[in-house]
Design brief:
Blueprint: H1 40-43, E1 49-53, E2 56-63, E3 66-72, H2 83-91, E4 100-102, H3 103-108, E5 122-124, H4 127-145, E6 150-151, H5 166-177, E7 182-184, H6 192-199, H7 212-218, E8 221-225, H8 229-232, H9 243-254, E9 257-261, H10 267-271, E10 275-277, H11 284-297, H12 303-309, E11 310-311, H13 313-320, H14 331-338, H15 342-354, E12 357-361, H16 372-385, E13 394-396, E14 447-449, H17 453-458, E15 463-466, E16 469-472, E17 478-482, H18 486-489, H19 493-500, E18 505-510, H20 515-518, E19 522-525, E20 534-538, E21 545-549, H21 562-572, H22 576-580, H23 585-602, H24 610-615, E22 620-621, H25 626-629, H26 635-639, E23 653-654, H27 658-663, E24 690-693, E25 721-724, H28 726-731, E26 739-743, E27 748-755, E28 763-765, E29 811-816
Parallel strand pairs: 6-17, 7-14, 8-9, 8-12, 9-10, 11-23, 12-13, 17-18, 18-19, 24-28, 25-27
Antiparallel strand pairs: 1-2, 2-3, 4-5, 4-19, 15-16, 20-21, 21-22, 24-29, 25-28, 26-27, 26-29
Bound molecules: ligand PGD (2 copies).
One ligand PGD is lined by residues 156-159, 164, 166, 187-188, 367, 482-485, 488-489, 509-512, 514, 526, 529, 562, 694, 696, 701-704, 768-769, 789-790, 793, 807.
């Protein structure tokens, strides 16, 4: 493993000049023809193979069929140390080698001994047998319960690549063979992405931000509100480009004032020498209201902006100044809730109004009870400041994700495999015909809000509200997952374990023995993306290159690609041709490239023929126009709000929403509102004294890479780390390196203690994504030996509007663990598998 060129260790930034990267394989305008320039690696004569990952572009060196070295791409401005874990994911002892079936399920049939899930008693079967079992069970369940008996929402991450997109491939198989229940939304921005279309007319959370260059040149105060790009921009949904690190370095060089509002003094705050304000978690809306009240009281708000570009400020104002409920939301009022002193809150209002202020908000502030309010209130606050659409002012909701703010290249959109023809609605109530407008004849829901699967299993037939509509939770008997790790991402693990007992069958495709695979009935081993060919774009926002993702090594053991597995299942069900469309891996990859080539030509650029591209071992680069480098979010709206009206009913920013008013939800009023979450630090009804920040991990992508050697970089006593303030540690007799038990009414986990003053007293940090390792899976609320934080979080939804997850809502107590320490067992094959 060679990382000599980069030497980065978080939280430090890589100080080498990011901008020096030489042009490698670059695509130029048609006028000058197609041009390929060889990169330094190729010139040296060393045979390295290029591929890509969520952690960046890299070159792999293979010796005698084994990947022995991974080198980050020369043009990556800030390679992440996580790339080191990637190689180990191929060879780690947590690799799934063969198709496996849970013994009780195999011998006694679907639904047998549900308490035995997770005990690791698996039997190895042949691929032939495994495919028969899956195809047979799909047929049985659909015949008995209809297509709504099968859940294929399969939420979660996957590997990069336009072809081996496992979740899409799963849906394609399920659609082709007879339908399924899908999922709505995601865990990242579940609340914000439902409320923001009512407020600004788009999802906003995944929109491009004002460019870093514009921020550097215009912003005077840069606020990171629950936002930690130094950590979270390490990865990409597509291949990570790490452009945000260039932007952050520029911000630092420019000496821009940085304020970080976060219970943790983040890596970003430390790198940028930011001013750290640490409110109580889950109280951001109150703090924002305190700032808003000061703006109004001191006449610092921008009346012209509010009049011209927003609707409903008058109604919100009645709430803000207390006309509506008798409580003015003053800085003093806010201070009591959020714990930041009133003077500071007032000063923030003055400073924000006086200077060009950009508020970069992360997403944890909406991943909590009533999370819809946070982003709505932030838009409202920025509307009062009146800087939205001005260079360097307003808000950006994606600076921390996939390097938002990195200018977008003029490139074609690379297509990918689709989930096939539109789903047929098959589950109409008896006696109804398709297209009937009778309300009794509306199809039973075939999509549920993504985090409500557990609720559906526990309460089939229950009607829940969702963004103005009613959804009847379906009766699900079979759950199929390919891409994603529900036994990591879902909140309230013990409730989930109980819900899973209702299932007949749980099928999982993965390459590692995750907790989900361990709780499955049928486990199918898939290839990693380093054992197959694919193609992908670089940078979700940058879209700067097309990257050949070339197979590095042959599939290990009996692993097969998701595509091949699904094609075989379709064959058993008589649908192979429909599924594959008669094409293999390389046919599909070429077809995506060729379509991009045509689009590119229409844009006046000439891409090389596929074979030249594929054999070049280089990424194909696209130009970035100056206009993109100078991009200002909402500049067009500001310039002409009629011509560039927003997608809201009024065409303006909706501080009061009539649409939401019509929904009459008691937990999501029609204007931004402070509402107590069900539990919080020092909250009125809170039972436990410490809040858990279940942040995104520094050396993992959720649970991905937890099963690799990278764990040695952070695990404490072999357990997931728990950061705790010295005061809280002392009060509990805890010191660095201790193993402790964190617990509440929902569950209990072991963690390794790290005492640090970069965390607010009253808050502990246990990152999400630690692998669930139950001591005794048959025992209710059993101890998790490794430290999966979702044993402790609540599964309550944000509100009736978004029904999103509240991963950041959890209070706990923690104590030194004095019993005999159970060894961690989750990072090897299940013991009884054979
Ligand atoms: P990952 O660990 O990325 O987590 O939850 P998610 O389920 O996405 O899971 C991806 C899985 O896909 C891994 O097991 C990986 O091995 C597998 N995989 C990768 N490539 C392939 C492939 O080609 N084929 C197949 N079949 N499998 C593959 C993440 C979710 O967690 C998210 S997105 C968020 S934002 C939430 N965050 C929090 C949080 O902040 N706090 C808490 N408490 N909980 C959270 N949960 C959520
Ligand atoms: P988090 O780490 O959960 O990241 O991006 P997101 O912004 O949600 O939280 C960001 C910051 O919010 C943390 O510093 C945390 O302390 C702070 N915070 C927590 N609660 C509160 C609060 O109540 N108020 C305030 N003011 N701050 C709070 C997540 C994004 O990251 C997503 S959704 C995904 S899918 C990706 N996941 C990963 C990952 O797993 N690992 C890495 N390294 N990078 C990722 N990037 C992406």
């Amino acid at each position: 493993m060679s990382f000599d060129k980069t030497k980065i260790t978080l939280p430090e930034m890589n100080r080498r000049s990011f901008l020096k990267s030489s042009a490698m394989l670059t695509m130029v305008g048609a006028a000058s023809g197609s041009l390929l320039t060889r990169g330094a690696q190729a010139q040296s004569g060393t045979k390295l193979t290029m591929s890509g990952s969520h952690w960046g572009v890299f070159r792999g060196r293979v010796d005698q069929g084994r990947l022995v070295e991974v080198t980050p791409w020369e043009q990556d401005p800030h390679p992440t140390p996580m790339l080191q874990g990637m190689m180990d994911s191929i060879y780690s002892p947590s690799r799934i080698k063969y198709p496996m079936v849970r013994r009780a399920w195999l011998e006694q049939g679907p639904g047998a001994d549900p308490e035995g899930r997770g005990t690791g008693d698996f039997v190895r079967v042949s691929w032939e047998k495994a495919i028969d079992l899956v195809a047979g069970e799909l047929t049985r369940v659909r015949k008995k319960y209809g297509s709504n008996g099968v859940f294929g929402g399969s939420y979660g991450w996957k590997s990069v690549g336009k072809f081996h997109n496992c979740r899409t491939l799963l849906r394609r198989m399920l659609k082709t063979t007879g339908g399924f229940v899908n999922s709505l939304g995601d865990y990242s921005t579940g609340a914000a992405q439902v409320i923001l279309p009512h407020v600004v007319g788009s999802l906003e959370v995944y929109e491009q931000c004002t460019s870093w260059d514009v921020v550097r040149d215009n912003t005077k105060t840069l606020v990171f509100w629950g936002c930690n790009p130094v950590n979270t921009d390490q990865i990409g949904w597509l291949i990570a480009d790490h452009g945000a690190f260039v932007g952050l370095e520029e911000v630092k060089k420019a000496g821009i004032r940085v304020i970080c509002i976060d219970p943790i003094k983040t890596e970003t705050c430390q790198y940028l020498d930011g001013e750290w304000l640490a409110p109580r978690p889950q109280t951001d809306v109150a703090m924002m209201l305190g700032i808003a009240h000061t703006l109004y009281a001191e006449k610092l708000h921008d009346e012209d902006f509010l009049k011209k570009y927003t609707v409903g400020f008058d109604k919100f104002l009645a709430y803000l100044i207390g006309k509506e409920d008798g409580t003015p939301k003053t800085a003093e009022w806010a201070s009591k809730i959020c714990g930041i002193d009133a003077g500071t809150i007032k000063q923030l209002a003055r400073d924000f109004a006086k200077n060009r202020t950009m508020i970069a908000a992360g997403w944890s502030i909406q991943r909590q009870h009533h999370g819809e309010q946070a982003h709505w209130m932030l838009v409202t606050l920025c509307s009062m400041l009146g800087q939205i659409g001005l260079p360097g002012g307003g808000f950006g909701f994606s600076y921390h994700y996939c390097s938002g703010g990195t200018p977008t290249a003029t490139s074609p959109i690379l297509g990918g495999i689709t989930d096939g023809p539109a789903a047929e609605v098959t589950d109409l109530p008896a006696g109804c015909h398709p297209g009937s407008t009778e309300s009794a004849c509306q199809p039973k829901s075939n999509a549920i809000p993504v985090c409500r699967l557990v609720e559906a299993l526990l309460h089939p037939g229950r009607t829940i509200k969702y963004n103005g509509s009613d959804i009847v939770l379906p009766e699900i008997h079979m759950v199929y997952w390919a891409g994603g790790n529900p036994f990591s991402h879902q909140q309230n693990r013990n409730e989930m374990v109980e819900a899973w007992k209702k299932l007949d069958t749980f099928v999982v495709h993965d390459f590692q023995w995750t907790a989900s695979a361990r709780h499955a009935d049928i486990v199918l081993p898939v290839t990693t993306s380093y054992e197959r060919n694919d193609i992908e774009q670089l940078g979700d926002y940058a879209l700067s290159h097309i990257v050949p993702m070339k197979k590095l090594v042959e599939p290990m053991y009996e692993a097969r690609s998701d595509f091949d597995i699904f094609a075989d299942i379709c064959e058993r069900l008589g649908k192979r041709e429909e599924y594959t469309e008669g094409m293999n891996e390389m046919d599909w990859i070429k077809s995506f490239y060729e379509a991009a080539r045509l689009e590119s030509r229409a844009k006046g650029m000439e891409m090389p023929v596929f074979d030249t591209f594929w054999q070049s071992e280089e990424a194909l680069g696209f130009p970035v126009k100056d206009a993109q480098k100078q991009f200002v979010r909402y500049a067009d709206f500001r310039e002409d709000p009629l011509l560039n009206a927003l997608g809201t009913p009024s065409g303006k920013i909706e501080i009061y929403s009539l649409n939401i008013e019509k929904m009459h939800y008691d937990d999501c009023p029609p204007h931004p509102t402070w509402m107590e979450p069900i539990e919080r630090l020092d909250g009125p009804t809170t039972k436990y004294p410490l809040h858990i920040a279940s942040n995104h991990p520094i050396y993992r992508l959720h649970s991905q890479l937890c099963g690799t050697k990278l764990r040695e970089k952070y695990a404490i006593g072999g357990r997931e780390p728990c950061w705790i303030n010295p005061k809280d540690a002392e009060a509990r007799g805890l010191k660095d390196g201790d193993i402790a038990r964190a617990y509440n009414d929902r569950g209990q986990i072991l963690v390794g203690i790290k005492v640090t003053d970069v965390i607010r007293p009253g808050v502990i940090r246990i990152n999400e994504g630690g692998w669930y390792d139950p001591v005794n899976p048959r025992e209710a609320k059993t101890l998790c030996r490794y430290g999966d934080v979702n044993n402790l979080t609540t599964s309550v939804s944000t509100s009736k509007l978004a029904q999103a997850n509240c991963g950041q809502t959890a209070v706990v107590e923690i104590e030194k663990f004095t019993g005999s320490l159970p060894p961690v067992e989750v990072f090897i094959e299940p013991r009884k598998a054979g």
